[in-house]
Structures are given as structure tokens and as C-alpha cells.
Amino acid sequence: MQPDDLIQVVHTIHKQKAESQTVEVKAAHDGCPTRLFDTLSSFSNQDSGGVIVFGINELADYEIVGVYDPQDLQKKVTEQCKQMEPAVRALFTICEMDGKIIVSAEIPGVDISERPVFYKGVGRIKGSYVRVGESDELMSEYEIYSFDAFRKRIRDDIRVVDGVGFKLLDKERLDRYLEAVKRERKNLADHVADSEILELMGVTAHGTPTLAGLMTFSRYPQTWFPQLCITAVVLPGTEMGMLGSEGERFIDNRRITGAIPDMIEDAMGFVLKNSRVKTIVGENGQRQDKTEYPLRAVREAVINALVHRDYSIHTENVPVRIEMYRDRMEIISCGGLYGKITIDSLGKVRPETRNAVLANILEVLKITENRYSGIPTIRREFQLAGLPAPTFSVQHGEFRVVFRNDIYLAEKKADLSGLFDAIVDFCSVPRSRSELAAFTGMSRYYTMSMLVQPLIDQGKLKLTLPDVPKSKNQKYVKA
Q1: Residue 325, strand partner residues
Q2: Which of 134, 160, 267, 425 has its CA 20 to 30 A from that of 72?
Q3: How much is the pLDDT for 279?
Q4: End-of-domain residue from the set 139, 160, 180
Q5: Is residue 155 a contact partner of residue 205, using CB atoms and an 8 Å limit?
Q6: pLDDT at residue number 335
Q7: Which domain, by its residues, includes 82?
Q8: Are 271 and 305 in contact (CB under 8 A)?
């Protein structure tokens, strides 16, 4: 980073009055902060790294206070960097603003094979952090395990499930699978016993079904793993916990069980049952039904959630979740991105496969193509439907897909005349974010960013806790 770049970063911090996913500020006018290891760890453990800016006082409205001694500060920050495992190599930049010295320390993201970076003083479990927004949060045991699983190539989908008898598998589906293997894998067609094929393909190990074999061919794998299923709910509002007109929490609520092929079909049935369907009459007079969400995209997302989720002992008690809100649908599965893939590169590069054996079994059964076309298909289907692009995110070891419908589009295009005045009147007494979202009937994000924030900027509303704008106890009142 050049000094001019650092000056621009400081201007951005002043304008936004906030830290971010990649920016942390420290005052350092009275000495070097003694606890930096949480931020050093969290920045090192994300691909983009981050920058610590010294000389800005967050508690004084992000005032530029300068640093006590830039030379000594760099020395002491470097000493703390050496206490990390592996050691962090910070890159320092110095600039002057308003007659005061600002110092930045750029913390590079390390390769995934070296993560997690942690503070040696307390060890991996208590010294590994992840960046969440503007805060550094302690990594969970599972998040630490996920790095080990990739580095050590732990294959959870072929772990043996003790106590499962071969006779409990679906013989008809197993026979179809064996026929397909012999047809497509010519070297296994002749003079290879069926039991040997199942061993070579990872369905069994030493005659006992593997987890991949159980999840594909058992009539009811939830006997052994009750939570390796899908929980599907339809909610009346735009946030979990909002009640319907008759006080109902859920419009529909179902636990979807069975083998993976069965869960895929049942999940599609649930989504179709609870989706709005429009009938469109074309220019030729033909009628065509248009579902709320492109079903092909939904199917790809459900398959991805079941095939690429984490199947380790750390997550076997967490189901895949389908949550259908008024303005969107979310599909959530355990397990962040596997390997060196990033959110930005999803669908653009060939990723490594977490459950290669399971994916291969389902490819033979023609349930999935296993050609890394799922994300591009999802994006294309939403583009063709004229709906907002789907979003993908990872947080706390969960992968989340969000599909937005045309109700969301209607919110964006809503006629706002009179609504701003109504919000100001509503805030004659302090109102929380949830109360404001319920009042507008729109999503919380849309309400706060597109309706409330402009009123704050215009001086018509004010915060009850202005010194901590993002506090969970924040309320908004008429100025």
C-alpha cells in the first residue's frame, strides 16, 4: 500500500464511520495495543487478508489522533506477529494527515493449507479467529476441523457405518446402480463380482456400507443419523419469528427423510406445493405456468446442499434447511467452501470435491452430472426468469443460497410517496429495527437501508444510541 492509498482508506473510514470485513482501526496514541492476536488471526484466515489502521480513535467518532511513535509501533506489532503460528508478515505504510502520523499494517491472507493461523500463547482452539463483519470471533471446533479435513484429505463420505447390515439397503436401486456401473465402466463389466464392484466404487468397505452407500441406498438412513435430513418450513413474513395474521409461526413445516434421491424429489414437491404459480398467456394464445422460483435452479441448489455438505461427526446432527419467506427462499447446508475455491470464483473454476465418492455414485445414477455446472445453471435460470441474481455466502461453516422472488422486486419498485412521512410519525416513540420492518411490511434490509437511513441522513430521524450505531438495542426516534 502506498501513502496515498492509506489516505484514501482513512477518508473511507471517516465517511462510513465504521470498520469492515477487511479494515480494523486502533487508536495507538498512548502506546501500542497489547492485544492484536485476534485480528491478526482473523485477517490471516480469510483470502482477502486485511489492514489494521493505527492512529484513529473509534470511540471518539473515528477522530484522527495519530500514533505515539511510528518506529516503536512497527517494532511492537512485529513482535506480536511473531507470536502467531505460522508467523504473520505484516507490511507497514506511514502517512501524515492533519499534522498527525497514521500507520497501517497490511495482514496477508495465508494459503488454506496453513490455516488456521492462531496465537501460540493460548493454542489453536482458543487462539484461532474468523472475521465476521467488523468483529473478530473465536473459531468453532468445527471450523478448525474443516481446515484439517482439507489439509489431511479426510474423506468422511467413505467412513464405515458400524451396525448397518447389507440387507437393509434398497436392493432394486442397488441393482440399477450395478447395471449402470457395468454399462459405463467397461473395465468392471466382466469377471468382477458385484461385491467387488461395490467395494471399488466406495459403496461398501470390507462388506459394510460406507456413509455414501448408506445415504444413497438405505431405505431409511435416518435410523442411524436422524438429523441427516432436510427440515423445510414456509414462514408468513420476511424474518424468522414473524407471525402470520392468525398468530401462526409456520404456514407449512416438514421434515424430509429417506435416501438422498428420495429427499431431492420430496424437497422439490415441498417447494412446488408452497410456491406461487402464475399463468401467462402468450401471443399465440397458449397458457404457460410460471413458478415463483425456477424449479431447475431449485433442484440444483438442493442437490448441491445434499451432495457437497459436510458429513463429518461434527455436523451429523445438523440437517439441511429450506426456509421459504414471503420475499425469498434460503437453502442452508453445513460445510463452508471446500479447498481453495472462493465465493467470487463459484461456477467459474473447477472446485475440489468434498464428497467425491458420493458425487460419483449419484452421477452413475443420473441424479447429478458431477460436471460443476450447478452454479452456472442456477444463475442462468434466474436470469432467464427475470429475477434478481441468486446470492451465495459462507458464515460460521454454513453455506447459504438465497433466491429472491418478484415480491422482492416489487419492494424495490414500490411507490414510496407518503411512506417516509408515515415512518417519521410511527417513530414518535423509539422503534426497533424489527418494529420498523413489521410496520413497512418489507424486508428488514430494505426497510433500514432504503427507507430509514435516508430519513436519518435528512435529519428527520435520530438514533437513541448514536455512539454505537450497530447496537442490537438501537432504536430510532423522530428528531
Answers
A1: none
A2: 134
A3: 62
A4: 139
A5: no
A6: 87
A7: 3-139
A8: no
Whether 353 contacts 309, CB under 8 Å: no
Compute φ and ψ for 454, nearest 5 degrees.
-60, -35
Whether 377 and 420 map to the same domain: the answer is: no
| Reported pTM | 0.74
Q: How far apart are CA 327 and CA 116, in angstroms?
A: 37
Question: At 276, which CATH number?
Answer: 3.30.565.60
- Regions of the chain short of the pLDDT cut 70: 278-288, 370-371, 408-417, 441, 443
Q: To the nearest 5 percent, what fractions of the chain are helix, strand and coil? A: 40, 20, 40
* Per-residue CA distances from 190 to 43, 171, 174, 333, 365 (Å): 55, 21, 18, 40, 20
**C-alpha cell read off for 260:** 438422498
Tell me, yes or no, whether 352 and 283 share the same domain: yes
Which CATH number fits the domain that encloses residue 474? Answer: 1.10.10
> How many of the other CB atoms lie within 10 Å of CB of 201?
20
Grid cell listed for 222 = 435416518
Closest by alpha carbon to 69, among 34, 114, 21, 101?
101
- Alpha-carbon distance 406 to 365, whole Å? 35
Question: ∠ CA 330-18-79 to the nearest 5 degrees?
Answer: 105
Q: Enumerate residues 6+ apart whose C-beta is below 8 A from 359.
A: 307, 308, 353, 368, 370
Give the pLDDT confidence score for residue 108 in this predicted structure.
96
| Contact in structure between 401 and 301 (CB atoms under 8 Å) | yes
Number of domains in the chain: 3
pLDDT recorded at residue 357: 95
Residue for cell digits 435460470?
381
CA distance 333 to 319: 7
Give the pLDDT of residue 24: 96
